[in-house]
């Protein structure tokens, strides 16, 4: 969310590129026209920061379909804008269409996921009850469907969200449909685990712990956030019950996985310290050579028990449902939240906690 890592969020028929100038505490905005329809989901390529995918509504013959496409933003915006806020709002530019993800035979697109550690050439889309793996070819100008699978069962099964795991050589994804969370192997396109009734109501979002390969977070309309070890899914490892309405988003911090962000229809953003199930449950480990005898004894006492989980802060700057929360990819202490009324709020992890984690 600094000059080299713009925040991207969607407005009806527009995408706004937001640059946060941390030193001067200034937000700059550039507007890109998305003329094909109203945007419901955005995801950016991990390999090329100028490329993104959108899921959007398209009306044809009085029927509304949710489609997906891959786009490139103008080159000058990739490295960050240096315009003043007054000038930038009047400059609208157009996205360059790279390719459509043809979903005519598969239903409405719910989301698009990029392979986390790849070269930006593999993406997965969820369309109704289908998982579709695409290869982007010819400089992303062509999307070729390489494999797919369908969720079988009674009723109208539809995926609501999904997440591609950065672990296991990027061969696993997790999906949510109704109250169930499933894991899939992208090589065989077969189910590898299933958490039935993961939540009491609809599951809204998923996220993998970036540092612990089997740990997955989920949130839903039962107001809860749950943490799972996918090797044993009979019970969640931990449950958070801090929100009073639907939880739309859950996000692990990329660097310090004890820091968890959640956003909810209760208009609040909550930052939690889930240190007991993090990759450093005893706090930041210090090299023995750096400690004196007295400090060594104190360190031994300190690491006998895991640190306590807690809510760090509750942010109430929003006046409407918070639909998205996201950590900065450039600064691990910076995060943004977006609410239904279009308000974007940028916050920082409290300084005292930052130094407690680092020192």
UniProtKB/TrEMBL annotation:
Keywords: Repeat, WD repeat. SMART domains: WD40. GO terms for biological process: protein ubiquitination; regulation of cellular localization; regulation of transport. WD repeats lie at residues 196-232. Transmembrane segments: none annotated. PANTHER family: EARP AND GARP COMPLEX-INTERACTING PROTEIN 1, WD-REPEAT PROTEIN. This is EARP complex and GARP complex interacting protein 1.
């Amino acid at each position: 969310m600094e000059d080299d890592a713009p925040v991207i969020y969607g407005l009806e028929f527009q995408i706004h590129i937001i640059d946060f100038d941390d030193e001067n505490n200034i937000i700059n905005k550039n507007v890109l026209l998305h003329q094909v329809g109203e945007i419901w989901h955005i995801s950016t390529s991990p390999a090329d920061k100028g490329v993104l995918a959108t899921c959007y509504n398209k009306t044809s013959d009085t029927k509304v379909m949710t489609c997906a496409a891959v786009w490139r933003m103008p080159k000058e915006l990739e490295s960050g804008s240096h315009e003043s806020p007054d000038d930038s709002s009047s400059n609208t530019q157009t996205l360059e269409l790279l390719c459509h993800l043809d979903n005519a035979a598969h239903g409405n697109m719910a989301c698009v996921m990029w392979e986390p550690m790849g070269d930006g050439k593999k993406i997965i889309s969820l369309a109704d009850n289908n998982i579709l793996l695409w290869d982007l070819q010819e400089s992303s100008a062509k999307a070729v469907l390489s494999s797919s699978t369908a969720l079988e069962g009674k009723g109208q099964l539809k995926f609501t969200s999904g997440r591609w795991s950065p672990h296991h050589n990027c061969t696993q994804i997790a999906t949510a449909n109704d109250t169930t969370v499933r894991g899939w192997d992208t090589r065989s396109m077969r189910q590898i685990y299933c958490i039935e009734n993961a939540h009491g109501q609809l599951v809204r979002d998923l996220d993998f712990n970036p540092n612990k390969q089997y740990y997955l977070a989920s949130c839903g309309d039962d107001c809860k956030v749950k943490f799972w070890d996918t090797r044993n899914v009979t019970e969640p490892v931990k449950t958070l019950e801090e929100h009073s309405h639907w939880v739309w988003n859950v996000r692990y911090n990329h660097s310090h996985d004890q820091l968890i962000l959640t956003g909810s229809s209760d208009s609040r953003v909550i930052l939690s310290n889930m240190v007991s199930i993090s990759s450093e449950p005893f706090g930041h480990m210090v090299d023995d050579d750096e400690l004196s005898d007295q400090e060594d004894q104190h360190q031994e006492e300190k690491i006998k028990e895991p640190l306590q989980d807690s809510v760090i802060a509750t942010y109430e700057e929003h006046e409407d449902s918070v639909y998205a929360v996201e950590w900065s990819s450039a600064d691990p202490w910076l995060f943004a939240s977006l609410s239904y009324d279009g308000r974007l709020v940028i916050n920082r992890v409290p300084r005292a906690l930052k130094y407690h984690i680092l020192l």
